[in-house]
Amino acid sequence: MELRLNHVKKSFGDKTVLDDCSFVFQQGKIYGLLGRNGAGKTTLFNCLSDEIQPDMGNALICDDEGEHVLLPDEIGYVFSVPVLPDFLTGEEFVRFFMDINRDRIETGASAETYFDLVQIDPEDRRKLIKGYSHGMKNKLQMICFMISRPPVILLDEPLTSLDVVVALEMKQLLRRMQKNHVIIFSTHILQLATDLCDEIVVLSEGRLRQIDHEMLKSKDFEEQIIELLKDEEKHE
Ligand SMILES: Nc1ncnc2c1ncn2[C@@H]1O[C@H](COP(=O)(O)OP(=O)(O)OP(=O)(O)O)[C@@H](O)[C@H]1O
After folding, report:
1. Mind listing the pLDDT tens digit for each residue in 109-136?
2. Topology adopted by domain 2-84+151-235
3. Are 12 and 62 in contact (CB under 8 A)?
4. Domain named ABC transporter: which ranges (predicted)?
5. Is residue 230 a contact partner of residue 39, using CB atoms and an 8 Å limit?
6. pLDDT tens figures, 70-83
7. Which end of the chain is more exposed for a tag (fewer CB within 10 A), N or C?
8. Ligand 1 binding pocket includes 10 (Cβ within 6 Å)
9. 87 touches ligand 1 (CB under 6 Å)
10. What is the residue extent of each domain of the chain?
């Protein structure tokens, strides 16, 4: 399965944010999306998830069965601030989510299976989501994706505010899930991108370009990425 962006264009007034942006993301890989503040990472995610309409172009899912325009329910979006129903307990929410996705669930999986996988303690499962930490909310969102299994998962700077232990658990979780999904992960932390991601993609001047693996291995990789990102400023 592949996610293909075809000539996606998005402007806000005079400002062109995505400029004829084309790219192919492949299933099984975690992509680190890097870009300066205001480069258009969130705009790209919003176009993919149907939050906003691109002015031109589209995103297609291509697999053995053919190709079709990416549908909103084929996207899982982890916002930097997780949005969840605060008035439910974690357990109530997961059971509810399993119920509305009962056709997609792996046979035999129970709510406990999922909580165990993301390492949320049994006593926390019965607490209101309102009292959950940011990391626990992120884990709940990951449970949603394990249940509904959208082909494309977008993560908007999800690990930045997590403590090192939870960030490591989340990384392990993403690694475990990656083979069935296209995972795109926006971050400002270069180290995290190189550490977790299979490919690094830079968004600059409204376009996506993949960094080749030779460059990733070179010792002045960080300097080269910074130069690439700085170039955008020169063109503004
Ligand atoms: N709804 C909107 N109306 C007008 N301009 C917008 C809108 N959304 C985004 N922009 C502009 O588009 C540009 C790209 O913003 P976007 O939030 O996509 O960047 P980003 O790469 O996610 O930035 P950051 O790393 O700071 O989160 C910015 O100049 C922003 O001001």
Report:
1. 789 988 998 889 999 999 999 999 988 8
2. Rossmann fold (3.40.50)
3. no
4. 3-230
5. no
6. 998 899 988 777 78
7. C
8. no
9. no
10. 2-84+151-235
